[in-house]
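Hi there, hope your week has been kind to you so far. Do you reckon you could talk me through the fold, stretch by stretch? Thanks so much in advance, here it is.
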Amino acid sequence: MKLKKINDNFKKSVNIKQDNNHIIINGSVSDHTYKIKDLCFTNEESKISFSVPNQKNKGDFYYDINIKKEFNEVVQKEGVFRLDIIVQIYKKNITKNRIKKIKSKKSFLNETEDFLEYYIRLGRFEETVTDKLNPTIINGNSFTLYKTIKGNLSLAVNKSINQKFTTNIESIISKKNTIKFSGKLLTKTYKIKTIELIVSGREYNRQVSFPVSIKHLNSETKKQYGLNVYEYKTDILLKEMFKNVKKDSDIYEVFLKVYSFNKKEPTLVKVGKPNQKVKDKARMVHTTIGDKVFTANIYYTYKMASLCFQVEDFKKENYKYLKRLMRWSFLLRPFYKKKDIWIIGEHKYRAQDTGLHFFKHVRTKHPKKNAYYIISEDSPHTQNVNPYGNVLYYKSKDHIKATLFANKIVASHDPHFFYPLRTEKFKRKLHAKIIFIQHGVLGVKNLTALYSKDAGRIEADLMIVSSDKERDITLRDFGYKKDQVAVTGLSRFDSLFKNDIPTKRQLLIIPTWREWLLQKHVFLESEYLKRYLNLIYDQRLHQLSEKYNFEVVLCLHPNMQHFTEVFNNAPCRVVSQEEVSVQDLLKESIMMITDYSSVAFDFSFLEKPIIYYQFDRKRFLGKAGSHLNLDEDLPGDIVFETTQIFNLIDYYARNNFKMKKENKQKASKFIKYKDQYSSERIYNQVNELKIESSFLRGIKQFKKIIKLIYNKFIRN
């Protein structure tokens, strides 16, 4: 929450006030051998500048700016003026090195025989006090004096100020059915009028609000160069949150909704950035309402460290059964070990990817194996698994028992997605081997923070990959040992390589998601949406479609299901990954446009042309980057503008949609087996994985605790 301090305390204090037509700025510097002269307003884009004289002497300054008078002739449509002070110093009072340094900088202004003059930015004073910063409207033009995110002063003319508010969490207490937490909120130039807490569900967009108490931290604000710092405190009452709710299974994000002075719209700020002590206190709370128990497990997102709650509702008797079985699992486990129970799953609502394909294989080829699929009873995907039997409904007693006593847990995603509870306490009760069968070929985006051994999230005992290249990435970047990675191919490849669906003249547009687009208002204003709307509405695309006789299909990512109405009138066929078989779309399409999606690898294995539209590559990959050299490794053409897309569509259509030879060679490096035996290879690997004795498991747990203690208290 702190800005980097300046190296000296030359800038002593400043008081700033804007009211009606006047801006008053007064203060002082610590060294009065310096003379403070004019205050300069400069718009760097239009090159407009003017100055206001200092009404005081030496190291003190006082500026009275009459906005109407000074800006009468320089008003433009919109722009920002930076504020600088001219400082004068006699050469005899500073060293030759200091003179040389001043003259070498861009801020140097003038030199005479006796003195130097240069600019310093107005801002970042040791003590900054702002009385009022009320925007002024004169002749239809707005003037807003504000503090930049670095603590300097600027004047916005006819321009809105968008500054990101930030939070931290300094304390969190979860007790009985209440979660109490507090921290700091940095609102930059804005002062708070009112504030409330919003707890918002990702899946169903259910929102609950709670009151928040705030306190303006005057001394800390002064030290932060006048950027406003508040302390906030709030309580989340589970009884209140779940009253009149019959069922709930969702991830809830936590926001502060801030109404600021001089800001028309409220600002939603994600609550997050806990210190390590707060992170260590994360635990689950629950409340009983009627015949239901609602649990809220506290956790933090891996990248942004934002506060979230994993909420589940249980039948009261099932929750009691869960707690009782957890308590006595160590005594009951030996009776189930020989049953060799396997549980298989994707997300609790899904059965359409590698989990489903592997389960189908086990049930048809190895029907005597005690393998069970986990899915919510109300999921539309139950129709995909029910024909094969051994389906356990999420949070049922059978699901709870099978998870606690399983020998193998086979997951396409994070296995926590289909655990009845996602708490550390529950995970410690499990003795199963974790097999991560993945849901796509690795490489495009760096996933070390999710999948590495040190990340502590999936903690797989066996990881399934599709090629020697992917195995090398896993060994190099994720910290797995050679015997923990198996090159088998993904289970869905068995179906991918079946020649059972004829190819259509169909162009498939299938972008992946962006993790920063969770809120609807953010999505609607995003470059992502604008780019894809521009693409599907562009007349050049439809002219090519008519000329070469192909249909355009836009397939929406599952995270876009709340925004599908945006595409209601789209001039192409629009489908959702939740409603169709993505693999069928791949097999029947003749060409693909994507961005970073791993399904492009599947498409390349069918030797069909791919266009990678990567207009936001830098932001998508982030600081971690990629496991690959995208420009050299991806099996397709990489573009950044729509014109390039249309040129390539035209090229491929004229060449009967044949994949380029060099892209076929690139694709071959990402797959070892082009056959229909991947699921059987995976089955053999899972079956041969040995279960440790309780003694060996205890030693492993002890080593893990020692490593945690070392990382927390010694290494750091």
